[in-house]
Design a protein that fits this description.
318 residues, alpha/beta, D-Maltodextrin-Binding Protein, domain 2, 2 domains, 10-stranded mixed beta sheet
Length: 318
């Protein structure tokens, strides 16, 4: 009897181990909280393609925009932690949402899997704007207080907060127009319906090359290799903090370690692929491709920065 029981227990362990080893056994959904075309969507799709080719399973991207980028994280926070519902998002969004919206999540709600790519934000105007520098922009807005508008990917989004930081540092008054993602905000910037959008090199690159947009200032501590010649915001506004977006892959908080390791390892291995890293640089992103532990440290440091800054901006909850 003991031999039979031992054999049955061994078989069960082997079966369980095989089940875990098979992850993913079916299609995995990667939710991104913004509309197609912006930096969050681009990172999500490059991530999904890498995981699909490496793990030999379907990874599909689902854009759940709206509510200032909070609808997607709300769904992931409530998802079963089995590895089949994940999220690719700017981590800033998870820290700052509580300052602009009534949400059930914060930066501690999710499991960090891998930091994927980063980019700074850039103050941008369209080609018809009557000026070439951030100083020109400041003078123009000061001459028209409360009459001009700026667009963003939604209230409390990185694009919104980055713009507000500059406006606050310069003492400017503009009307905020939120969109369901940064791509539609840029569409209206090009059409002249809003005067300014704070975006990343991902959104700017196609239009900069055609001369349809002007980049006035990079919100970082170092120049962007993708926007040569564009000055730093601190060249004009000494006290304006940087605004850099770190995009990564996350899941529900109780995601099993073996699932986290499988996903993280597949992305970390991408460090060895020049072709994969070039996918990011070609669209204006700096590849990170971190381990889960490295991403957790980056997430914690980024959250501290924004938890210090956000209460000073005077944003009202929607």
């Amino acid at each position: 009897m003991r031999a039979i029981a031992y054999a049955a227990a061994t078989a069960l362990l082997l079966t369980t181990g095989a089940a875990h080893a098979a992850y993913p056994e079916r299609t995995v959904t990667i939710i991104t909280p913004f509309a197609p075309g912006g930096i969050a969507d681009v990172v999500a799709r490059i991530t999904a393609e890498r995981l699909q080719s490496t793990l030999k399973q379907n990874f599909v991207v689902e854009n759940i925009s709206g509510a200032g980028g909070t609808a997607g994280p709300e769904r992931v926070a409530k998802a079963t932690p089995d590895g089949y519902t994940l999220m690719s998002t700017p981590i800033f969004q998870l820290t700052t949402a509580k300052y602009a919206h009534n949400v059930s999540f914060d930066e501690n709600t999710f499991k960090a899997i891998s930091g994927v790519a980063s980019a700074p934000f850039v103050i941008t105007v369209n080609e018809s704007f009557p000026g070439k520098t951030l100083a020109d922009f400041i003078a123009y807005v000061k001459a028209n207080p409360g009459k001009l508008s700026f667009g963003s990917a939604g209230a409390g989004s990185t694009t919104h907060v980055a713009a507000v930081m500059v406006l606050k540092a310069a003492g400017l008054d503009m009307v905020h127009v939120p969109y369901r993602g940064v791509a539609p905000a840029f569409t209206d910037l090009l059409a002249g319906h809003v005067v300014m959008v704070a975006g990343s090199p991902v959104e700017l690159k196609p239009y900069m090359e055609s001369g349809k947009l002007k980049a006035l200032a990079v919100l970082d501590t170092k120049p962007s290799p993708f926007l040569p010649g564009v000055p730093l915001v601190t060249d004009t506004l000494k006290d304006c903090p940087p605004a850099v977006t770190y995009n990564g892959l996350l899941g529900p908080k109780d995601l099993p370690k073996d699932v986290v390791d499988t996903l993280s390892n597949a992305l970390v291995e991408g460090r060895k692929s020049d072709e994969f890293k070039t996918r990011f640089s070609n669209v204006g992103l700096v590849p990170l491709l971190t381990t889960s532990g490295e991403f957790e440290k980056l997430f914690a440091a980024d959250a501290k920065i924004w938890n210090d800054i956000m209460p000073t901006l005077g944003l009202k909850k929607n």
